[in-house]
Amino acid sequence: MKVLVNEREIDIEGEITAFEVRSRIKSDADIVILNGFPIKQDYSLNEGDKVTLIKRGEVPKKEELEALMVSRHTPKVHEKVKKAKIAIAGLGGLGSTVALALGRVGVGHIKIIDFDVVEPSNLNRQQYFIRHIGMKKCHALKEILLEINPFINIEVVDTYVDKDNIKDLFEDMDIVIEAFDGAENKAMIVREVLLQTEKPKVISASGMAGYYSNNLIISKKINTRLYMCGDFKNEAKVNEGLMAPRVGIAACHEANMALRLILGEEV
Fold it and tell me: Which domain range does residue 137 map to?
């Protein structure tokens, strides 16, 4: 019988269980994953089963990590996600949260763009830590993303986005995620990406301030290249700021919309 153990094919005579494989091959493994799912009780193995043995605190090899992603996502989904190229413009509460979600699902190429630095006031909703205060957001976020998945390609662009560099920044991307502050900046990037490029689809967000109902935040298709997420009403203003929960909900709408576009589920 042939089974895969940590992506290495082995021949086994007779019957064997997952825990017996652990005892033979990696007895110090804390976690046993059978065909993509962590198991707490032992199972008999069948021809073609995949067993992944993980020791806590030990970074898996690239092939092992990818195998785990494939088993979770299914091969068809994982291959599409791995080939995708997504740009995130603005790395605040929206952009940093979108980036982490896309990094966790294994998007193969993520371009992160921002010229700003991490400030203490950012920590109420953005995915940074005290150790990042004073660092450029793009460099701090790359550090975090590589802690999540060291095998994806993170392209860092430390620049201010305006209409003069839109084409160079985005024309080769599959998807552009708008994550700016301010209505004028949001409108500018959406308008100019649609005007100056032909390929990328754009996902924008509007309306996520305060602590209103989660269910007011939605995703909708505007046209063949533009998608919007948010409640389209509640902008940040005096006595009604941006807070982690609703910003995070809107950001995950953007990330999930990007995943749906990658997989051809744009309707």
Answer: 77-262
